[in-house]
Structure formats: structure tokens, C-alpha cells
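REQUEST FORM: STRUCTURE PREDICTION
Request ID: SP-0412
Submitted by: Lab K.M.
Chain count: 1
Length (residues): 155
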Amino acid sequence: MYRKILLAIDYEDDGEGKRALEEGVRLMGEDSELHLATVFNPGGAGFFPHVTTDAPEDRENEVKESLSLLARKYLPMKYSASLHVIAGTPGEKLLALAVNIGADLLVLVSKGASSRWPMRRATVEYVAVNACCAVLILPSLVKAPEETRDTPPAG
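STATUS: Completed
RESULT:
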């Protein structure tokens, strides 16, 4: 079992949070520590990325509340986790946090089907290649295609 597990979670993806927390709890031992981390972009979006209507502290609090909600929703009552909300570049920030807390496992969820896949793939690859600890990359939950009916309508 692992002593310090760092789960990297997209605070906007409920399914990813649930999946990562389930796996993190499964890998915990009696004396393990669980750390949940999310990295967000502190700037705005669009043509002027440095212009935002939210203060950085407001954005950080919003992200922390979302991460906290995921933990309360999917972490079994007998477990606790430290929450880490970090602004910046995901790969670099996750690796720095892993070093700072002395993680021996970093868990990420891959999102191959996401519209942000190029960014996610780069983050996953960066972490896997440069990590100071073991890295577990969970496949994203694949949604089953809707079944089509080949039977003609009754009539």
C-alpha cells in the first residue's frame, strides 16, 4: 500500500472526481494520507486572457469549494483528505506538490475523448516522465454508445 497518495482531480468533472477517489481509497493502507489536488488557470479567457472579472482569491475559493464538494460527496466518511488548490501550469504544479508532500503515488485520470485532450495529454505525459514517485493513470470512464434498435416499429 502507499503512504502518501496524491489525486489530481479536475474540479469541474464529477465523474473524474468519483473515479479518482474510489481508486485512491482502494490503494490506501491504515496509515496512508490522501491528498486531493486541482490546478486552475487564474486568468480570464478569450482575447485578453489577463483580464478577468473575478479577483484571484474569489476564483481560488470557488475552485476550493468545488473540490471540497467532490470530497464530501465521494470520500467515505471514515477517510479524510488534505485539499490543495493551485494556480498555474498543471504538470509543473502537480509535480512540485508531489515533492513537497513526499507523495509516493500520484494518480491522474486520462481524458482521451475530451475537447481539451491535447492539453490533458501533455499534462499526463509530462507528469509520467518527470515524476519523483510512481504514477497511476486511470482511463476515463467510457460511455457506452446508445443501443440502436433494428426492429421495425409495430404497426
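NOTES: The longest strand covers residues 28-40.
Reviewed by: T.R.
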